[in-house]
Amino acid sequence: MANGKVKEALDAILECFESGRIPEAVAYSVFPVPDLPSSKWSFLNRINIFIAGTADARGFRQWKEVGRHVKKGSKAIYILVPRIIKRENLNEKGEKEEGVTLAGFMARPVFRMEDTEGEPLDYQQIQLPPLPLIEKAKKWGICVKAIPGDHRYYGYFCQSKQEIGLATKEESVFFHELAHASHQRLAVEFEKLPSWEKEVVAELSAAALCRIVGKSTEHLGNSYRYIRHYAAEAKSSPVSACLQVLSQVEEVLNLILADAKLPLDEVLDLLPATEIACLNQAAPGGARDQWQRSRCPHDHLHGIPSMILVRQS
Ligand SMILES: [Zn+2]
Question: How many Å lie between the centroid of ligand 1 and the Cα of residue 130?
Answer without folding.
Answer: 21
